[in-house]
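Worked example

This section walks through a single chain of length 215. The input is the sequence exactly as stored; nothing has been trimmed or padded.
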Amino acid sequence: MKRQIPFLSLVPGPDADAVRAAIDRVIESGWFILGPELSAFETEFAASSGARHAIGVGNGTDGLALSLRALGIGRGDEVITAPLSAAFSALAIEMAGATPTFADLDPDRLTIDPRAVEAAITPQTAAIMPVHIYGQPADMPRLVEIARRHHLAIVEDACQAHAATCEGTPVGTFGEIGVFSFYPTKNLAALGDAGCVITNDASLADRVRRLRNGG
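Given that input, the structure is written out below as tokens.
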């Protein structure tokens, strides 16, 4: 007898009891926003992502916008990003008040092409936002070299690349900051929507923590 595997199933499976127990802990604690469960997750996610700090946020889009704001990027600035992504990468740039600029793709990786990035840099460019798509990392060593040479920040959109690495280094840790999404269809999913920002910069982490909570 053939077993049919559904294209998508978002209901709890063998982990249903553990999921229910976690929900019950949150409800019984009364901590529905932030709180000890999130703090514990942030510690574990930072360790698994190779970063010193992880900051839970409402979703990946918020994470990208808050990261740009924490870096001081906004009105009058341009952020170079990839055209192959969900619309939310560009929308997050606009949410921060900056302007998205698209650079073409590497035909082999289907991620942003470093040569196209360098060609797109203008005096208004403040950051590069590579998108690691389908778990495939962008060419981060080359992008880091370009960013350093032009004094640009890097905000990695790793919303669809949990646990991916580039030349042995976890994505999200090459630039100043990296962002992950836990939208239900992502590699690591939440029951609802959620996101996380990672960084090795303590002051940058503190700014994101303040911004996620109204400043």
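What to look for: The chain has a mean pLDDT of 95.
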